[in-house]
Amino acid sequence: MKALVTGSAGFVGRHLIGHLEDNGYDVFGTDLSSGGPDLLDLKSFIELFKRINPEVVFHLAGQADVAASWKDPYKTFKSNVEGTINVLTAARESNAQKIITITSADVYGPVASQDLPITEETALKPVSPYAASKAAAELFSLQAHDGYGQHVIRARAFNHIGPGQSENFVCAAIACRVAKNELSGGKVVKIGNLEAKRDFTDVRDVVSAYKLLSLSGENGEVYNVCSGFAVSVQEIAERIIGMARHKMRLEVDETLFRPVEIPELFGDSSKLSIATQWEPIYPLEDTLRDLLEYWRAQVLIEPKAE
Known about the structure:
The protein is an alpha/beta fold. It has helices spanning 11-22, 42-52, 66-71, 73-93, 129-148, 170-184, 203-216, 233-241, 270-276, 284-301, and strands spanning 2-6, 26-30, 56-59, 98-104, 152-157, 159-161, 188-191, 197-198, 200-202, 222-225, 231-232, 249-252. Helices cover 43% and strands 16% of the residues. The strands form 4 sheets. The protein has a 6-stranded parallel sheet, with helices on both faces. A two-stranded parallel sheet has the order 6-9. α6 (170-184) crosses α10 (284-301).
């Protein structure tokens, strides 16, 4: 099967391309950072799609930094909403058979503890500009299915982690700080809100879910991609510093807090499992160890300040 991955140079994109290639797909990627067209350049996207003529499109590209979305909501909206419209349009113009649109569990917003775990029927109440942009992108994906008859499947990804992740995300940030301390001898790891609880899934399990949805997902449907249980940021941090080569301690830094923090999120992936037989296979401990090993290698090759 010929596949096109947008955002192919990103954290998830790189893992997805490798997974698809391992499973016999003929894979093409596009990413602005590696010379691909801008998401907002519809003409160039249509030309790219017509040249590749993909059977399935995995749309990962966009602005994925929640903190950055508070600083520039307009840019986030343009990238995630207008960009999604352009991908859907290019897919329609090139007669792509399927589009897997990747959104985020942030669209659910705060959910009362008695309403957990989150199912696909949970109301959308986005609180960050990022989450609002993803909810809008979902609506345009649904409209492409209902209005234009396109084969569109939406995947609502909860927190995913693993080797290759940017330090803009909490688990990778902790791993990066621990790795830097190992080199410098530092003993303090600064951290934001320790109490927040999230549903963490290994990125390698996540991309497996995306591939399975392209094969067995139902047209027009939406699926949670998640582990099904919540882990606190404090537990994540303690597990990572427990792997450190010398003793370290956590120190809360309120400047690392988000403007609005959702206390707890975890999802129900039974709909995905029933449709595709997907189950996560990577234990959290292995994921965190692989993430720390990645950052140990990264800090060794980072350019030193003059």
